[in-house]
């Protein structure tokens, strides 16, 4: 990347695309394409403008195209889906590096508090990307049962993260 005003937006842009696409490689590929387009258009869309918002708008359009290509049934997203997703992304504070890093640290600490079987489920589902059906089959349980268990684990992690972050903001 050749432009410092755009370069420091890379972590936020990658997180945004990961939020939209739920796949690390896809997020990285679309982020790279976003930067290629941004640099081709010129590094300064408007003097004094929000470069992060400009990059997100390019990325949003690329993500929309990527999702359309990925869908085999031809199902299209509602027209405002990605704009609503971006608003949710901004509302979570995930675009701020400090908050993102604090949430990542809290997640790590909260994962350590989980019982080992729950940690292994989370790892298999989210780190390794195994499908619920595959994990359920290997555990010889119903996929719905596993989905409910994963939902309870995610809820527990969310509460732990929120509690950890609230404790840090007081201290």
Short description:
The mean pLDDT is 79. This protein has helices spanning 4-7, 10-21, 24-41, 51-70, 81-92, 97-113, 116-127, 132-139, 143-170. With 171 residues, the protein is mainly α.
Rg over CA atoms, rounded to whole Å, is 19 Å
Mean pLDDT: 79
**N- to C-terminal distance:** 38 Å
CATH topology of the largest domain: Rna Polymerase Sigma Factor, Chain: A
Helix content: over 70%
Name the overall outline.
Answer: globular
Task: Name the CATH architecture of the largest domain.
Answer: Orthogonal Bundle
CATH classification, class level of the largest domain: Mainly Alpha
Please outline the major beta sheet: none
Query: Order of SSEs, N→C?
Result: HHHHHHHHH
Q: Report the count of strand segments.
A: 0
Number of helices: 9
* Alpha-beta classification: mainly alpha
Unreliable stretches, pLDDT < 50, 5 or more residues? Answer: none
Strand portion: under 5%
Structure notes:
With 171 residues, the chain is mainly α. It folds into 2 domains: 4-92, Rna Polymerase Sigma Factor, Chain: A, CATH 1.10.1740; 97-170, Arc Repressor Mutant, subunit A, CATH 1.10.10.10. Helices cover 77% and strands 0% of the residues. The protein is built from 9 helices and no strands. It is globular and about 55 Å long.
């Amino acid at each position: 990347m050749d432009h410092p005003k755009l370069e420091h937006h890379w972590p936020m842009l990658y997180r945004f695309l990961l939020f939209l696409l739920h796949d690390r490689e896809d997020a990285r590929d679309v982020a790279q394409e976003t930067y290629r387009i941004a640099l081709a258009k010129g590094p300064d869309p408007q003097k004094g403008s929000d470069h992060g918002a400009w990059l997100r708008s390019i990325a949003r359009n690329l993500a929309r195209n990527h999702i359309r290509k990925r869908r085999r049934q031809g199902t299209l997203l509602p027209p405002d889906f990605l704009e609503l997703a971006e608003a949710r992304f901004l509302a979570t504070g995930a675009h701020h590096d400090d908050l993102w890093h604090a949430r990542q640290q809290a997640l790590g600490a909260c994962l350590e508090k989980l019982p080992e079987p729950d940690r292994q489920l989370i790892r298999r589902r989210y780190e390794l990307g195994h499908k619920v059906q595959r994990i359920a089959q290997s555990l010889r349980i119903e996929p719905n049962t596993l989905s409910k268990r994963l939902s309870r684990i995610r809820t527990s992690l969310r509460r732990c993260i929120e509690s950890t972050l609230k404790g840090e903001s007081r201290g």
